[in-house]
Structures are given as C-alpha cells and as structure tokens.
Specification:
The protein is of the alpha/beta class and about 270 residues long. A five-stranded mixed β-sheet has the order 4-5-6-7-8. It has a four-stranded mixed β-sheet with strand order 3-2-1-9, with helices on one face. Strand 4 and strand 5 form a beta hairpin. The longest helix is centred in the middle third of the chain and has 29 residues. The structure holds adenosine monophosphate and manganese (II) ion (3 copies). One manganese (II) ion binds next to loops. The site of one manganese (II) ion has 4 residues, from loops.
Length: about 270
C-alpha cells in the first residue's frame, strides 16, 4: 500500500497547492495522505478539497528544539478546529516573523543587500528557502544549495536560533488536539546512535508516539536501522516523502510493502 504522511504544499515552502498534491496522490494510488506544512494548517481550511479515493489525514510539521538541537515534530490526525493547535500555529508564526526580521538584518550586513524583507514582500512569512531564492536572484550565490551552504544552513549566519514552542509543549498540543506526535526525519539530525536513542527515550517520555522510519528517498540500510529503533522504543511507524517540489529525487508516496516486518505497528492503523 502507498501512503504519505509528510509533504508540503504552497501554504509553506512547497510548490504545489493542496488540491494538486491530492490529485497526484490519487493518480499514484496513495491511500493515506497528510499535508504537513511547516507550522501551518491553512491547507485544510479549504472545504472543497476533493479527497475522493484517498483518506486525507490532518497534518503539520512543528519546529522545536531538543537540547539546543533544531528538530521537527509532525502532528497527524488532530482536530483542525482545536484551539490547542490553532494557538500553536499563531505562536509559531509570531516566532517565525521575528526570526525573519533577524535573518534579513544579518544577511544585509553580510552581503550588502538592502531591504531584504521588502524585496520578499510576500503574503507568507519568509522561510529560509525564500531567503535562499532571493540570494540566488541577486547573484550572491549560484544555487539555493549554495545559499544554504554559505548563509542559511546549520551554524551559518542565517541559521538564527528561534523561540519555538518547547518539545513538551509541541507534543502536548498535538495530543490535546487529538493527534499523534511523530519524530520527523530522525537521521537528518546527524546524531550518534547513543544520542539518537536518548532523543527517542525523551520523546517517548514526553508523550511522543511515532517515528518516521522512511523520509523521502532512503537506502534499505537506513530503513532497517530505523525499524530497529522504532521497535526498541515501542513507537508507531510513520513514513513520508517530505515532498516539496518535483525533482528527480523526490516524488509523492511511500510503498509500505518495502518494509518486510510483520511485527511493526504502522500509524495508518490508527486512522
Ligand atoms: P525554515 O522552516 O524557515 O527554518 O526553513 C527550513 C526549510 O528549508 C526546510 O524545511 C527545507 O525545506 C529547506 N532546507 C533546509 N536545508 C536545506 C538545504 N541544505 N538545501 C535546500 N533546502 C533546505
Ligand atoms: Mn521545508
Ligand atoms: Mn523537516
Ligand atoms: Mn518536511
């Protein structure tokens, strides 16, 4: 069966509209789809989404920290009308807007560009990919990848620490709105095995319920490792493409059949 519990629409830093994502999911025969925009649930505000042939599960990807390390928690299957999740979105977006101002200032100082925020003048709060696009457009870098490498990626000047909700708050908010908290892309944090186990122990103690055992294109070895961690920590298994835009490397949908492990508890059984 094909599922996708992690992808982005143009309500955050994805390219396609929610309806376009759903249309592709239908063509790809995806049975469960969740659109998990960064700190935002407005993809679900459209009541006219045609979800024929698939089950659309509410979703969000919340930014937070674990021991000063920036991590992402996906929330799935919550009530989009819950005050808990709606307040969280407001707080995260205030934090995002403040951070955008600081990133702009820092980039201006470093690159000599002027009025970066005005240049972006978008309807959305600029996220790091928007700053990367601007640096590319202005000829400061030759690719958005280079923009992340030099200016926006981990430890660089535009990687501004932010006052996100805490990990405990994020997990509570998801649970209180009736959803399931998933630790997103566990290998993306480049932790040692010991540290990753510590993160999972803390996540579980705080009320976290699931682990993303597949994130986008991933080799079998990594998947096997994450299955083992998932079972060791007695978490549900989730999987998602983390699709942002069409590329050679990324497409919507994960085939759950690639996991040959009958004792794994998949998250879709909860919906
Ligand atoms: P933000 O949520 O504003 O902190 O932006 C983070 C987003 O930037 C991630 O969700 C990715 O979509 C994107 N991103 C992070 N690192 C890179 C990178 N090295 N190259 C391109 N995009 C990236
Ligand atoms: Mn993103
Ligand atoms: Mn993420
Ligand atoms: Mn994501």
């Amino acid at each position: 069966m094909k599922v996708d519990f992690h992808c982005h629409s143009n309500h955050s830093d994805g390219e396609l509209s929610p309806q376009q994502l759903i249309q592709i999911a239908r063509e790809e025969n995806i049975k469960y789809l969740s659109i998990t925009d960064h700190d935002c649930i407005s993809a679900y505000h459209n009541n006219n989404l045609n979800t024929d042939k698939l089950q659309l599960i509410s979703g969000i990807e919340l930014s937070t920290y674990w021991r000063k390390l920036s991590i992402h928690i996906v929330g799935l299957g919550f009530d989009i009308n819950s005050q808990h999740i709606q307040n969280a979105v407001k707080l995260q977006n205030t934090a995002r807007a403040n951070r955008a101002g600081i990133i702009a200032q820092k980039l201006e100082k470093k690159t000599g560009l002027k009025n970066i925020l005005e240049e972006l003048h978008e309807t959305k709060i600029p996220s790091r990919p928007d700053f990367a696009e601007l640096l590319l457009k202005k000829g400061i870098v030759n690719s958005t990848n280079e923009a992340f490498k030099k200016y926006l990626g981990s430890g660089k000047i535009g990687d501004v620490k932010n006052i996100w909700l805490s990990l405990q708050e994020v997990i509570d908010i998801i649970a209180n709105s009736g959803g399931i908290a998933v630790l997103a892309h566990p290998l993306y944090y480049k932790l040692t095995n010991t540290k990753l186990n510590q993160l999972l122990t803390d996540f579980k103690l705080l009320g976290g319920k699931a682990l993303e055992i597949i994130n986008g294109y991933q080799n079998r070895q990594k998947t096997e490792y994450l299955i083992q961690l998932c079972q060791h920590h007695d978490l549900l298994a989730s999987a998602g493409s983390d699709f942002h835009f069409k590329s050679r490397w990324n497409r919507l949908g994960i085939e759950t059949g690639v996991v040959k492990n009958d004792s794994l508890n998949w998250i879709y059984d909860e919906f």
